[in-house]
Design a protein that fits this description.
- It is a single chain.
- This protein is an alpha+beta fold and 220 residues long.
- The chain is built from 6 helices and 11 strands.
- The strands form 2 sheets. Strands 1, 2, 3, 4, 5, 6, 7 and 8 form an 8-stranded mixed sheet that branches.
- The chain starts with a helix and ends in a 7-residue tail after the last helix.
């Protein structure tokens, strides 16, 4: 999608009703829906965080979505692909600020350059006990990413059309600290596997774009 087409869609992105958790469940780990239904959220003492699905134009002005590969560490999301973002801090004025601040820290994009379009459906992630507030945003220039060496192993992107393409949804076997040799639905983007919470967020984004434009996979 060309940047001009993307910007033209922004008002619709802001107004459309979110497809919500049912859209997220389409790419959820097979046990996740059952796990979430067992949780008493009124008693939940979860940590808070925010992430940003950040779009940007490449050299051809085609909109790309940025992902990070996290460093290996002693934690449940070690060496996993996600959107830039992180924990809500006491000084953050709101979750949108958290998402922008963390994006600046992790991939070097000035938070003042980021135009946040809207918040998506919040999500609880049982393995890490985080409630995540996802946002869609964009910048209008091709950036030079600067990765946060202590937390980010790699930065890559995928074009919006690839994120919308059904052919890029697969089933694969993954292993994590909390789940060994588990079959999951995932996106395969630029030879990388996007699964778990990030795939669930991307599934909602995917449904939003498909709903507002009612397009096939050749969005101009």
């Amino acid at each position: 999608m060309h940047i001009s087409s993307f910007i033209n869609l922004v008002p619709k992105l802001q107004k459309i009703e979110l497809p919500g958790i049912e859209a997220q469940y389409k790419l959820a780990p097979f046990h996740r829906k059952e796990d979430l239904q067992k949780i008493d959220f009124s008693k939940l003492k979860a940590k808070k965080s925010a992430v940003l699905a950040l779009f940007f134009p490449d050299e051809n002005e085609t909109m790309q979505l940025v992902f990070i590969l996290r460093k290996s560490y002693k934690g449940v999301h070690s060496n996993q692909i996600g959107f830039p973002g992180g924990r809500y801090e006491e000084d953050d004025i709101n979750f949108e600020f958290t998402a922008k601040r963390e994006t600046e820290e992790e991939i070097g994009i000035d938070k003042n350059d980021i135009q946040v379009v809207r918040e998506l459906t919040q999500m609880y992630i049982p393995p890490s006990n985080f409630i995540v507030h996802p946002f869609i945003g964009f910048i209008d220039y091709t950036p030079k990413f600067i990765k946060q060496e202590t937390e980010v192993e790699d930065i890559f992107s995928a074009c919006l059309e690839d994120c919308l393409n059904d052919k890029n949804i697969i089933k694969t076997i993954i292993s994590a600290s909390y789940s060994k040799n588990t079959e999951v639905k995932a996106f395969k983007l630029n030879k990388k596997i996007v699964w778990g919470a990030t795939a669930m967020m991307l599934s909602e984004i995917r449904d939003i774009f498909k709903n507002i434009s009612q397009v096939n996979l050749k969005v101009s």
